[in-house]
Design a protein that fits this description.
Helices cover 47% and strands 13% of the residues. The protein has a seven-stranded parallel sheet with strand order 1-4-5-8-9-10-11. Strands 2-3 form a two-stranded antiparallel ribbon. A two-stranded antiparallel sheet has the order 6-7. Helix 14 links the parallel strand 10 and strand 11. Helix 2 runs antiparallel to helix 4, helix 4 packs parallel to helix 7 and helix 9 crosses helix 10. The chain is globular.
């Protein structure tokens, strides 16, 4: 494989010295970019975009071509590929988001679920990873990812997105045996899926625990964090002669940073509700931190964006171990010029913290 020309993202995740704070954006290949919307129109629909390795590569590269400041690429895919490969029948309804043709509601349903083979059942994702890695040609590292077991379970039990997670939480409390079996199967599936991505060329991986923050403190430990810990313990941590960092991101998980920091990942993703400096004090030297600007700041004018970037950098302070990112995904209505102003500000304002 081609040597990396820019490895500051990987170095920061391992708390090694860097020249400037590295930056990438969750959902950086997305609807805010006109070139992405054109590719999606050419593909026909979102799933066709995800399941065609050439299209997935094309849209992964678009933000990198537009913004030379980006220090990482992230695989273009969806977090619900695993439930789809388990036979749930993923589809998307306009204005409704992801839906499943089948839902999981009983222990028998869960017992019948297969554990997908990443190469046979999710081969299109592995092909996308290897295609993107080849196209990158060492330009920046490639991030692979998966949804967390708890997050995937919520979609499988609810049949789609939910505001109150009524069915999932009822199963959790009424039938914890069934929920644990589902989460265990998902943890096995995520582990093999991420290891498949690493073998195909992903140089770091992120676990997106989008809905972990909707649990109580006790339920989070038992039904979300425990299974992410299990995944991390089973991941390939070195490949192609270098470490493969793991990022764990629980949206709404700021109350539990110390527990998450002890779960075995190299870095924690933070949403915008956490103070970055306080988070650094709480986790100490155990992990790097990724985040955490409120994505809606990108609706503001470039000078206001720059001010907020400066505030966050000052909050973290001197030294490595920080990857700048948004506290969640960039939204479709953001002006691409504002995203560019954000990325430039991170590099320009962060050099002083790395001297």
């Amino acid at each position: 494989m081609t040597a990396l020309k820019n490895d500051r993202f990987l170095r920061a995740l391992l708390k090694q010295p860097v020249d400037v704070t590295p930056v990438w954006m969750m959902r950086q290949a997305g609807r805010y970019l006109p070139e992405y919307r054109a590719s999606r129109a050419n593909a026909g629909d979102f799933m066709s975009l995800c399941m065609n390795p050439e299209f997935a590569c094309e849209v992964t590269m678009q933000p990198l071509d537009r913004y030379p400041q980006l220090d990482a690429a992230i695989l273009f895919s969806d977090i619900l590929t695993i439930p789809d490969a388990m036979g749930q029948g993923l589809y998307f309804e306009t204005g409704e988001g992801p839906r499943f043709k089948k839902v999981v509601s009983t222990l028998a349903d869960i017992e019948a679920l297969p554990i997908p083979d990443p190469h046979k059942d999710l081969g299109y994702v592995m092909d996308a990873v290897s295609t993107i890695r080849r196209e990158l040609n060492g330009r920046v590292p490639l991030i692979g990812f998966s949804g967390s077991p708890w997050t995937l379970a919520t979609y499988m039990v609810e049949g789609g997105s939910s505001k109150d997670f009524r069915k999932t939480k009822a199963m959790l409390y009424d039938n914890p045996q069934a929920m644990h079996l589902l989460l265990d199967k998902l943890a096995q599936s995520v582990t093999s899926y991420l290891n498949g991505q690493i073998m195909a060329g992903a140089q770091a991986v992120q676990i997106f625990d989008t809905w972990g923050g909707n649990l109580s403190a006790a339920a989070y430990q038992e039904f979300s964090l425990a299974y992410m810990r299990k995944i991390v313990s089973g991941l390939i941590r070195e490949h192609e002669g270098r470490k493969v960092p793991v990022i764990m991101f629980t949206k709404g998980g700021g109350l539990w940073l110390e527990s998450i920091a002890d779960a075995g990942a190299d870095a924690l993703g933070l949403d915008w509700t956490c103070d970055l400096g306080e988070a650094r004090q709480r986790v100490g030297n155990r992990v790097a931190l990724q985040g955490n600007m409120d994505p809606t700041v990108l609706y503001a004018k470039p000078e206001a964006i720059r001010t907020e970037v400066g505030r966050i950098l000052a909050s973290y302070g001197k030294g490595s171990g920080h990857v700048f990112n948004l506290g969640h995904g960039i939204t479709p209505e953001v002006n691409p010029e504002h995203a560019g102003a954000f990325l430039r500000a991170v590099h320009e304002l962060s050099a002083q913290y790395h001297q």
